[in-house]
Amino acid sequence: MTRMQDRFVHYRLGGPASGGGVLRPLMWVFGLIATGLAVTVGAVLAVLTAAAVAVLAVVASVMVFFTGMALRARRTVRAKASAEGVIEARKVDGTWVAYGWDRQGR
């Protein structure tokens, strides 16, 4: 190596290969700060992800609850309709034929 290249290797930012250098402690502090910021950003993103999952779980629970209530109401209305004497009628060859209207008298 030439003398100029030797100086460049010795006085670059990290110092010589054996350790030392003027900026080495400063770079270590900047690395520590960057690591702290990365950990902080990661923690914030983890909290936001957990909050989004919790909101989705609550919305899904509410939807399941309302679906259950709707199905229960549907069964209740169907049971009341058959218990109140509603008869069944079908159209056969252009004429309506009713079933069940005379069953109470027998």
TrEMBL record:
Transmembrane segments: 21-45, 51-71
Superkingdom field: Bacteria
Keywords, comma-separated and alphabetical: Membrane, Transmembrane, Transmembrane helix
Keyword Transmembrane set for record: yes
Descriptive protein name: Integral membrane protein
Organism: Brevundimonas balnearis
